[in-house]
Amino acid sequence: MRIATYNVNSVNARLPILLRWLEETQPDVVCLQELKAIQENFPEQALKDAGYNAIWHGQKSWNGVAILSKGLEITERCRVLPGDPEDLHSRYIEAEVNGIIVGGLYLPNGNPAPGPKFDYKLAWFERLAKHAADLLAEGKPTLLAGDYNVMPTEIDVYKPERWVDDALFRPETRAAFQKMIDLGWTDAIRKLYPTETIYTFWDYFRNAYGRDAGLRIDHFLLSPALSERLTGAGVDKHVRGWEKTSDHAPVWIELS
Description:
One of its GO terms (molecular function) is DNA binding. Belongs to the DNA repair enzymes AP/ExoA family. Pfam families: Exo_endo_phos. Keywords: Hydrolase, Magnesium, Manganese, Metal-binding. This is Exodeoxyribonuclease-3. The chain starts with a strand and ends with a strand. It contains 7 helices and 12 strands. The chain is α+β, with helices and mostly antiparallel strands. It is globular. The model has no long low-confidence stretch (mean pLDDT about 100). Helix 3 packs parallel to helix 4. The protein has a single domain, classed as 4-Layer Sandwich (Deoxyribonuclease I, Chain A). A 6-stranded mixed beta sheet has the order 3-4-2-1-12-11.
């Protein structure tokens, strides 16, 4: 079973890219982030024609998350991260697919830091950790996949010395990610590739992709029951090189 996560950076603007990638790789389940589309503008029919069912939570101009499945029923569990009824951002969606609980997330960027946006990021991360602990307590095979907007360690960022004051790399952000690991979640990429340089995002500016000046900010965290089933993981880096593509590349895992 292949599960992927992909920050599409506007689902309608990148729809030809998304459909091309789906046709090429045929993942069973996909978490999408940054739809940048209101609920009724999600391209449901185009994805259905490509063989994918979908649930989604849109938002005008920004954010937005979705879960796609190829020929598998999606049973939605929630479309808001618990813990703050005042939070109106579309950043989390959760469903059960083929016996696996799938949480798709788009964690806040948090810049500039320090400041209100960084405070919101850390508060959101705290809510995620609490919900993640509740999910572990359920004991079901579970994954939390998406754009976490955090580089966990120095090998996850090109020239880390340039990022020390950025919200994606500040000690508080990295500590929040480590807290998830300490709860019992497994970083899928690092389980299989503990020391390799692997990136999932390359900025549009300064020929970042051509220079391979990237960041690893899109992650799969797996519950213990799912971590045991991990057989493969990788990044479809070449998709970042396509014309009019997202600044993220799709990331995937294989489960037995």
